[in-house]
Automatic annotation (TrEMBL):
Pathway(s) of this molecule: Cofactor biosynthesis; riboflavin biosynthesis; 5-amino-6-(D-ribitylamino)uracil from GTP: step 1/4
GO molecular function list: GTP cyclohydrolase II activity
Cofactor or coenzyme needed: Zn(2+)
Co-factor binding comment: Binds 1 zinc ion per subunit.
Source species, domain of life: Bacteria
Designated name of the protein: GTP cyclohydrolase-2
CDD domains: GTP_cyclohydro2 (cd00641)
Domain (GTP cyclohydrolase II): residue spans on this chain: 19-182
Pfam hit, one: GTP_cyclohydro2
Positions of GTP binding: R61, I62, H63, S64, E65, Q82, E104, G105, R106, T126, T161, K166
HAMAP family named in the record: RibA (MF_00179)
Gene name as annotated: ribA
Family named by the database record: Belongs to the GTP cyclohydrolase II family.
Organism: Undibacterium aquatile
Binding-site residues for Zn(2+), renumbered to this chain: C66, C77, C79
């Protein structure tokens, strides 16, 4: 954009919109919107499909980055399959949004996630591992959701999640959730204990036998 100094009120914004482009995928041709947090330089994206600014509730996923699950096919968690299922569901409806927030490893970062996985290799569960490293069980912050939705013209969500904390975080942020859409993922021998811990210690809404 312009090389002039931005006005003072822009500097204070928590999130700045940068640009948008097309993103063709296996399932649909999405629009990809890029944002940056001026305070930290962290980059975030949103994918949208169809007219999301028409005032009707939008099928949406608020997904926090998980490099191992999203990009490296890890079976240790359910992030990759959740991401894929969310994009497929949006494609099936021909309308929706995916906010991709760069807060890796429930907010502890990639390197600490490797440390936490090491502790889990030695027997800790996902919550114990984070706590042993000195972190809370879940450090994710959803404060960017509201400015992102506002930029996209989205007023109300049909939110795809199994996480009641995410639903209550949206309430706290005054983001309207018109409907809660579960995202049930198949279990495997590697994510089974992780998913059980999510249910027992983090309150996720997953049926234990699934
Ligand atoms: Zn993951």
């Amino acid at each position: 954009m312009s090389s002039n100094n931005p006005p003072v009120e822009q500097v204070k914004l928590a999130l700045e919109y940068v640009d948008s482009c097309n993103l063709p995928t296996t399932w649909a041709n999405f629009r990809m919107h890029a944002f940056v947090e001026p305070a930290t330089g962290k980059e975030h994206i949103a994918l949208t499909l169809g007219d999301v600014a028409d005032g009707k509730p939008v099928l949406a996923r608020i997904h926090s980055e998980c490099l191992t699950g999203d990009a490296l096919f890890s079976l240790r968690c359910d992030c990759g399959p959740q991401l894929e299922m969310a994009l497929k569901k949006i494609a099936d409806e021909g309308r929706g949004a995916l906010l991709y927030l760069r807060q890796e490893g429930r907010g502890i970062g990639l390197l600490n996630k490797v440390r936490a996985y090491h502790l889990q290799d030695d027997g800790a569960d996902t919550v114990e591992a984070n706590q042993r490293l000195g972190f809370a069980a879940d450090l994710r912050n959803y404060s960017l959701v509201e400015p992102m939705l506002q930029h996209l013209g989205i007023h109300s969500l049909r939110l795809m999640t199994n996480n009641p904390r995410k639903l209550s975080a949206m309430e706290g942020l005054k983001v309207t959730v018109a409907e809660h859409v579960p995202l049930i993922i198949e279990r495997n021998p590697y994510n089974d204990r992780y998913l059980n811990t999510k249910v027992s210690k983090l309150g996720h809404m997953l049926s234990p036998e699934l």
